[in-house]
Design goal:
Elements (H helix, E strand, L loop, with lengths): L3 E3 L5 E2 L13 E3 L8 E6 L2 H9 L8 E4 L6 E4 L1 H5 L8 H7 L4 E3 L3 H16 L5 E5 L2 E5 L4 H4 L3 H15 L4 E6 L2 H8 L7 E3 L4 H5 L12 H8 L6 H5 L3 H8 L3 H8 L16 E11 L2 H21 L2 E12 L4 E12 L2 H15 L5 E8 L2 E3 L13 H18 L15
Parallel strand pairs: 5-7, 10-11
Antiparallel strand pairs: 1-2, 1-3, 4-9, 4-10, 5-6, 8-9, 12-15, 13-14, 13-15, 13-16
Helix pairs in contact: 4-6, 11-12, 13-14
């Protein structure tokens, strides 16, 4: 008998199509169901789901989280996706495809709070939890059965129910031998899914397009297709020597992934590579005065995100996109790490002034890279006697915003000039 698990109550299930305990029919079955222990947890249409949680009247409606007509789709619920709306799609195309969609400006503070709740619940299952983004994580539950009195699959099913109950959103789970197959599994049964892939990984991958693998983009796909390698089965059939001749040192690793092999551990200590914020303008902007106002707002947002993650900026990255969609990226290292928006802004403004030459820009962004531990940030310096005052002032501003809302207090440079 193939082992079964009821996802409605978390109990083991027999051969019947429904659960003998609760009558639920969401039964997942797999020969290795209770042996596998590496999971990928992915929230379903996370930003849109949080918005629907807070506005139940939107439950059956198409919801798009994103900017104005010139912005892009940050997230789309599954109803909107039926109409062809996808993340990163220009808003005007999304609204043309789904004119009745409810458009909501993103509230990242709210999404971060929900993410922290979910991570807290996952952390109760295992210390080997690696966040991969705000809405997904990898978990290694090997060795936890004695602690929980149940195999990983059961604990994951209970986690899904707990997230729905306590956070108000749904998750999809992929259970497999390794991180790669866990991620692929999680994407095969969304939303509210639970997919298991075991020893059949290579056979399951064989007919799939090479684009299924993370890291295989259009350029590599085209390069492989020129040699008739369009399916993962084609890569599986080659030797490591063949792959090395084709792609150099990266070749054998790609062949291994094509066979479902992934040696990467779940690493809770994996560092976030960057933290950033950006905005698309309603109309193109070209002058320093016009560009500095949104730049300041982004520096405040970036500083807040850094503090929330106990990180600091060791350098600043300025991103600009022209009206013709050409991108410009400029960087500057800081003399010491910071979480203060004033210091981020000072460095970013220096970079911006070099780019203001009459070119109209449609987007501006600010990022922190490299990152540093927050404990190393903004240390008192005899050459900068105002540093302590700046930290105290920012703490006061944060306290007021935490208590009364983000719009309670602001700096003069962040306000639009009155006519």
């Amino acid at each position: 008998m193939i082992p079964g698990l009821c996802r409605d109550c978390g109990s083991t299930a027999g051969e019947a199509p429904s659960c003998p305990r609760c009558g639920g029919r969401r039964i997942v079955r797999h020969a290795q169901l209770f042996d596998l222990a590496v999971a990928h947890v992915d929230c379903d249409a996370f930003f849109a789901s949080v918005e629907k949680r807070d506005r139940p009247e939107l439950a059956s409606l198409p919801v798009i989280v994103g900017g104005g007509q010139r912005g892009v789709v940050t997230a789309a619920c599954y109803v909107a996706r039926i109409y062809g709306v996808r993340s990163a799609m220009p808003m005007f195309k999304a609204l043309a495809a789904c004119p009745d969609a409810v458009v909501i400006r993103p509230d990242f503070a709210k999404y971060s709070a929900a993410s922290r709740q979910i991570r807290g619940l996952m952390g109760k299952l295992t210390p080997l939890m690696q966040p991969l983004s705000i809405d997904e994580a990898a978990l290694d539950l090997r060795g936890t059965q004695a602690l929980h009195g149940a195999p990983p699959a059961v604990m994951l099913a209970r986690l899904a129910l707990e997230v729905e109950r306590e956070v108000g959103v749904t998750i999809s789970i992929g259970l497999a031998h390794n991180r790669l197959m866990g991620k692929i599994a999680a994407g095969r049964d969304k939303p509210r899914g639970f997919c298991v892939i075991g020893d059949e990984a290579a056979a399951l991958l064989s007919p799939e397009s090479v684009r299924l693998l993370p890291g295989v983009g259009p350029a590599l796909e085209k390069r492989l297709a020129a040699r008739g390698l369009t399916r993962l089965g084609h890569l599986q059939a080659l030797s490591d020597q063949d792959m090395r001749r084709l792609l150099g040192d990266d070749g054998p690793g790609l062949r291994a992934r094509a066979r479902g092999i992934d040696p990467r551990p779940v690493d809770p200590a994996r560092e976030t590579k960057s933290v950033s914020a950006e905005t698309t303008f309603g109309v193109d902007l070209a002058t320093s005065a016009d560009l500095e106002r949104p730049l300041w707002a982004l520096c405040e947002k970036l500083a807040r995100r850094l503090r929330e993650q106990d990180l600091a900026a060791g350098g600043v990255v300025l991103k600009l996109k022209t009206a013709t969609f050409a991108s410009r990226t400029r960087t500057q290292r800081l003399s010491q790490p910071t979480v203060l928006p004033d210091r981020l802004f000072a460095a970013a403004r220096t970079l911006l002034q070099r780019e203001v030459d009459g070119t109209p820009f449609r987007l501006i962004g600010i990022g922190a890279n490299p990152l540093a531990d927050r404990a190393t940030a903004d240390r008192p310096d005899l050459a900068d006697p105002d540093a302590i005052k700046g930290l105290a002032a920012q703490k006061a501003v944060d306290a007021l915003r935490d208590r009364f809302g983000a719009d309670t207090i602001g700096r003069g440079r962040g306000f639009s000039a009155k006519p």
